[in-house]
Amino acid sequence: MPELTEEDTETVESVQENVGYFISYENLFSTWLKKGRDFSVQDVREALSAFSRFINATHKKVFEGVFDTLQTGFSKLGDSSASQSKAISDLIHLIKDIPMDGK
To answer: What is the pLDDT of residues 55-88, one digit of tens each?
Structure first.
């Protein structure tokens, strides 16, 4: 749902209470795929930052730090934002072919 944004505080709070965290539409894997060449490593950085901000306090122990290795590993993907973006984009396109629906 493209309308699902951080600004919709009522929905954010409801999702946080029921799921334990909130991820806006712009930070979804599927949205990154749609960006094509407009995707960048900054999209991932912003998504990870938002994820950390929107973990429900009662779920912090479960989810906090879950993406720390990914965040610290960006430098291993290249020495510039462009090379990191290319590497992550390539990985995303490999991952998208993995069945995630149990089929």
So the answer is: 999 999 988 888 888 888 888 889 999 999 999 9
- Number of CB atoms found within 10 A of residue 47's CB: 19
Q: What are 13-35's pLDDT values in tens digits?
A: 999 999 999 999 999 988 999 99
Residue 22: count other Cβ atoms within 10 Å of its Cβ. 23
Cα angle 6, 87, 63; round to 5: 40
Burial of 9 (0-12, 13-18, 19+ CB in 10 A): exposed
